[in-house]
Amino acid sequence: MKRYVAKAMVLTSLTVLAGVPAAAQIRADLGPIHIRIATDAPPPVRYERQTARPHRDAVWCKGYWDRQDDRWLWRSGRWEQRSKWINAKYKREGRAWRYEPAHWSHQRVVEGEDYQRWKEQQRSDRDGRQDRQRSRDEDYRRD
């Protein structure tokens, strides 16, 4: 009888402890969110089954592809405390992809260093093309 009660208590404890991480949400402000640039498109979005809502004030945050170094990494969907969740955004810019990670509305979004360098290079290339065109136009007028 004692073994039966002990087993039941252990199983109950393990069940309760397994549910704690899903319900407990720890939020840390890790600084601003950086917009980045990628040379390849994100893979197709994965289908995820939404789990049961842990409490009334929880909001579902969809899974998304996150850019880590030079590859795409899937971040699974999860329940979070109610707040405005902004989904990840992927936008084609010329031959590259602009990536804005998913974030909370209260988080600051800034352009990452790689995106700033890429944007400056695009601007420089465009200015060079415009200078060459002006030079050709001036040569044409002289003739």
Shape: elongated
Strand content: 25-35%
Helix run count: 2
What is the typical, i.e. mean, pLDDT? 77
Oligomeric form: single chain
Map the helices and strands.
Blueprint lengths: L1 H22 L9 E6 L19 E4 L2 E5 L2 E5 L2 E4 L3 E2 L2 E5 L2 E5 L2 E2 L4 E3 L1 H30 L1
Parallel strand pairs: 1-10
Antiparallel strand pairs: 1-8, 2-5, 3-4, 6-9, 7-8
3D architecture notes:
This protein is an alpha+beta fold and 143 residues long. It has one domain. It is built from two helices and ten strands. The strands form four sheets. Strands 7-8-1-10 form a four-stranded mixed beta sheet. Strands 2-5 form a two-stranded antiparallel sheet. Strands 3-4 form a two-stranded antiparallel ribbon. Strand 3 and strand 4 form a beta hairpin.
Which short descriptors sum up this protein?
143 residues; alpha+beta; four-stranded mixed beta sheet; two-stranded antiparallel ribbon; 10 strands
Brief description of this entry?
With 143 residues, the protein is of the alpha+beta class. A 4-stranded mixed beta sheet has the order 7-8-1-10. Strands 2-5 form a two-stranded antiparallel ribbon. Strands 3-4 form a two-stranded antiparallel ribbon. The chain has helices at 2-23, 113-142; strands at residues 33-38, 58-61, 64-68, 71-75, 78-81, 85-86, 89-93, 96-100, 103-104, 109-111.
